[in-house]
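[audit] Reproducing an earlier prediction to check determinism. Same input, same settings, fresh worker. If the tokens differ from the archived copy the diff job will pick it up downstream; this log only records the rerun itself.
[audit] input (457 residues):
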Amino acid sequence: MIPLSGLPVLTAAQMRAAEDSAIAAGTGVGTLMQRAGQGVADAVLRLAGPHEILILCGPGNNGGDGYVAAARLLAAGRKVRVAVAGDPRGDAARGARAGWGGVVEPLATARGAPVVVDARFGTGLSRPLDPADAAALARLVSQATLSIAVDLPSGIATDTGALLGDVPAFDVTLALGAVKPAHLLQPGASRCGAVRLIPIGVESAPAAHVLAAPALAAPAPDSHKFTRGMVAVVKGRMAGASHLAATAAMHAGAGYVALLGPTIPGAPHALVRRRLDDAALGDPRIGALVVGPGLGRDDEAQALLDRALATAHPLVIDGDALHLVTPQRLAARTAPMILTPHAGEFAALFGAPAGSKLDAARAAARASGAVVVFKGADTVIAAPDGRVTLALAASAWLSTAGTGDVLAGAIAAMLAGGRDPFAAAGAGVWLHAEAARRAGPAFIADDLAARLAGILA
């Protein structure tokens, strides 16, 4: 089983294309099924201990994988049973059931087991489960001490993570061949538990990947504050938000951080205070300009945003600023930009999302010419050229005021430090999540900003 960080993410159509390519190259469907079933069996052997195993098989190839796994587990001396709610339909799945050779129980009346493996439906499901089948699945999962889904828990839409009905939460999901969007997009991701990849020998060249940890290096011996990157933050109506973004940029490694606007009592002495004038905004040393945290939405805020947009600096645009601009105006700008909307800000700027969150972020990046960090319980980062990364689930304690301002500051530090906008956005998102993990429960945004420094140590 392989952890997900950095791996490709395939939609249902892309996964089918990858399998078709492997088949065209001479790998039969049955061979792919044997590889998947063996991988599932190996994983179950490591996870299940000595306990009895119940495998639920569907009528398609996912069910075929389950039959193969059951046969391999039985051959390994494990106590294993199979329950179904229909006969296999394809030749490969029928062959896998014949290879099982053991008793097949009706799903509706199957007795529970300590370990339950859901191999009913994997990639490509587009309709809810039969209510009786869904009830049986929920019952058996609730009775198990360990529940494992093969590819995806039955009842989740592969490309969007939408729940097609009531789907129980699993402890582990074994992704077959590639990671799917639903392993990372909510609410489906919350039902998957720990996700691990089972390779089956298919290849593809997707534009989407799971966000990986960035390469973090200490400053070179000849570094100075400006080679490490200068971040400037436009102070808005809510001074605390600007302070959080600036503090986060300092702790995330920026060598020089300036607050443009009236000073904030209690701000760190290392924070440079400058008047918000043409000289400060035009400073050619600025590697990233942050505008939006606590900006406000009145005429004064609009004027501040207009001044920021008129500069040639790379911008990180967050918070209120996302309510005061249009995609067309952003697209007319030539300097790099990173937008960091949550769902409400995204809808205000781009309209209600269409399709999956992945699709919506990619379309927004194309429309604006900016890297878009569509943040939330599932964060998607999209570039105008179509590249996408999907972040692994972060701490639910991030749902507190000010954490978005911290993210904007962290991303700005990565941008000012020399990363391209797409890489800077990914690095900032990763640092933000790692800081939250280290902070533990019930942290506040001030704690989160300070935690960034420990990651870079």
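[audit] rerun output stored. Observation attached for the diff report: The first helix runs from residue 12 to 24.
[audit] end
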